[in-house]
Amino acid sequence: ASMRELAQEMYPNKKYSKIKSLISAYTDLLVDLGLMKKERKGKETLLSLTDKSSRIIKKSKINKKVENNNN
């Protein structure tokens, strides 16, 4: 996904130009934590999850399944 797509998903009623720096700050934090990668393609910045974040998400889903089965 691109930064623009993420911005539209998170803030559908706001102009991208008004929230670009906010989205960039959020994603920079995730990059610093090793959870996201940013890659420039022309004028766009593409975002993707890292292996680390995929493992966390997978582990979280497994834990939720276990919790649901125990109830």
How would you characterize this protein structure?
The chain is of the alpha+beta class. Helix content is 63%, strand content 17%. The radius of gyration is 15 Å and the shape is elongated.
Short description:
It contains 3 helices and 2 strands.
Question: Which SSEs are present, and which pair or pack?
Answer:
Elements: H1 3-10, H2 16-32, E1 36-41, E2 44-49, H3 51-70
Antiparallel strand pairs: 1-2
The number of distinct β-strands equals 2
- pLDDT < 50 stretches: none
What is the mean pLDDT?
A: 91
Shape: elongated
Largest sheet: 2 strands, antiparallel
CA gyration radius, whole angstroms: 15 Å
> Which structural category do the helix and sheet elements fall into?
alpha+beta
Strand content: 15-25%
Distance between the termini: 36 Å
User: Major sheet: order of its strands?
Assistant: 1-2
Helix content: 55-70%
Write down the secondary-structure element order: HHEEH
Instruction: Work out the helix count.
Output: 3
